[in-house]
Amino acid sequence: MRAPDREHAALLEAALKQYDTDVHPLKGIHPAGHLECLVEQLVKSLRRIQYVHHVSHANHDPRRTDPADDLFDPLKAAVIQYRNGNQDEAYWLVFLATHFGKHPKDGWRLCRDVYGRLGGARRWDWNNIKSNPADFRDWVSQNEHSLRGGDGVSRRFSNHRKYESLKADSDNGLPAVIESYIGWICPPRTHQDLIRSTHRHVGQNPRKVFGELYCSMDVVKRFGRLGKFDYLTMLGKLGIAPIEPGSAYLTESTGPIAGARLLFEGNSEITRFDRQLDARLVKLDGHLNVGMQVLEDALCNWQKNPESFMPFRG
Q: Is the Cβ–Cβ distance between 220 and 181 less than 8 Å?
């Protein structure tokens, strides 16, 4: 660890020990190596989120927005578009980045080549996609072989999205997902209109707005708990939407809830306290002040190998 990370790790370790002693038992930190491993996962999760905050404030090469350029990055492109007043395009790019993900080897290639129509003259930007979803379905059908790597270029979903489909004729394939997202936004309503409508309904508390959007995204196909959580938290971290999670939404999760069980009960298979785990994590975060996404991410990775640090691979 870098010196600042070691200092932060020492503070987190002390805070967890104090919480375990004075507030609520954390049975999972007592076996040898568990506490140190959890702290390292927390530090790594914090660094990933700090990097995204850096992206939200940094200056970016305009080529980041060009899918014909090797520098294309949908998240940095979203920041550029948002700064330029193209709010719908910013939201759309974050959605694409979330749906395709960044593959450990292929990077953003799949996202880049769908957005850029495999190097075509036009893009599947928000204005085009919202007006022509049927044309998009036809385009995917015509280019499915290439998108799958049939032209010799490897294009894959990230590990978190590896079960997603490019099939044009599937009810859960890429065109169906995109059509359901368009339906959620419901043009001519804009993304900002959706945020304003949510404000009118639940107020402007960032956590309540996040929760309302999270529930309303149930209509978006193939965006379960992780997809919704990742999409909305990314909008918040990039400063595109004024939202943040007030919960880890554990009841719909697998890895994070196993990590929370392990932390509080010392066993990832004990389920009798599952209804209490979200509230317990909120209380713990009040002590650690790392944020719900850091806890969710760190616990998910920690439970895979709690006695020995294992880096996240995307």
A: yes
Please state, as a whole number, how many other Cβ atoms lie within 10 Å of the Cβ of residue 56: 19
Query: In this predicted model, what pLDDT tens digit does every residue of 236-262 receive, in sequence order?
Result: 999 999 999 999 999 889 999 999 999
Contact 114, 96 (CB under 8 A): yes
Indicate if the pLDDT at residue 313 is higher than 70: no
- Please state the rounded mean pLDDT for residues 4-14: 92
For 237, the token pair is 């971290």
How many residues does this entry show for the chain? 314
Q: Looking at the predicted structure, is the pLDDT value of residue 102 above 80? A: yes
Q: Which two tokens stand for residue 155?
A: 């294009």
Q: What are phi and psi of 221, to 5 degrees?
A: -65, 145
Q: Which positions ≥6 away from 173 have C-beta within 8 Å? A: 140, 165, 166, 167
How buried is residue 261: exposed, middle or buried, by Cβ count under 10 Å (0-12/13-18/19+)?
Answer: buried
